[in-house]
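Hey, sorry to bother you again with one of my protein questions. A protein chain has come my way and I'm curious about its shape. It would help a lot if you went through both lines with me. I owe you a coffee for this, so here goes:
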Amino acid sequence: MSLTKDEYAVYLPAVNDIYASEVTKKLNPERPFPAGLTLKDLIFWEPNTLWYYPYFLHSIGLYSVDDLPNNAVTRRHRSNNTMLGDSGGFQIGKGSLKGLKTLGKRPLPASDAVRAWQRSENVRDWILGWLDTYSDYAMTIDMPMWAASSVGSNSPFHHCSVKQLIDMTVENLHYIDRNTLGRTKWLNVVQGGQTEGDIEQWWNAVKWFRRGGWAMAGRAGYRGGLFYMLSTLLMMRDENAFEPGQDWIHVLGVSTATWAVLLTTIQKALRRTNPTLKISFDSSSPFQTGGRYEDAALTPMFTNKESTWGIGNVRAPQSRLHVDQSDVLAFPDANSPLSKVLALDQLSVKGGIWDQRPFDSVSNTLLVNHNVWVYLDAFQQANDLAEQRDVDRVPKAYLDCIALIEDLFSRSSWKSAILQNRTLLDQVAPNRSAMV
């Protein structure tokens, strides 16, 4: 089955460096593995015998400054897939970007933080060169507004003003504008902070940079909730932000079935302005749940109760009891192509040979592959149900929200209508901007 439909917003699995490296390794021939498959079949963004999906995100923030990694991401065949590169703004804001020696994980006096970043031209060189080389689309280097809020209390930029954060971001945009080689299209990050006017202040400062599209972050993104995101997008539309050439909008850090449906509705509305426009959204959730917590993702049941629209997780079978007894317990969710051919003794390998526990790194990689597929399938199911206006399997508030979004984007004067319906918007997708 195809996991993509052009009319739906695109989910970008945020492939991490561990997965990208593991799938390039040579499998020990003595390790149990599904018959007829190799580790390369887990590179889902390249055609393979298991399942194929041609979109993903990868962040430079996973690496240390000046690293030139050699893995399944950097070796990718660009004709087979589309990669969005994240510029590492989150790690820069946290002071956790490895190799960024001028900053640290502590607040600096504002003037010191500004000077430290200005002296980090080698970091900007590395980020720009890496993204220009490997990405089809890339996010610009933003200095996130949350750094100046209470949740950014440990950020080196915590004492910076909103204006200083914006000014540094604009300097980064000018740097990209002067030095990009044109091998990637750039998504200009639109941020929002803690006050009502922050989004518009940021927008007015950065809106001149138009090299492919936009990325919605902070209060302007999903963390601000549907009210703030719609207000921002409608403001941008009124200033011709989505004219042809500005063909991609990315929403950072969200992967719920609810947002999948909402973003598809927004994409359809904006395609009246630009028929080629695409909206994407991303998360690392399948990689965290499978690689770090060793949980298996579960396909939602989807009813008209909002509580059924979440992607659940359950602890993956991990016991020596499963070794050589693969018929004792079934895999928790047997819907993915991998889970249909995966025996439990290929997941829980004998301890003591690989690690002092039943799972090895290959086990985690297998589990992640299953989880990514579950997320993609769930979002497609959710969009299909919303498209059908299935009242038995889509919550009424979601259907009302879809109709409202369609109405708002049909209006030239929309501000009073969005205010009148803020309760519904906040119910379906509330403001979470107090959290990083």
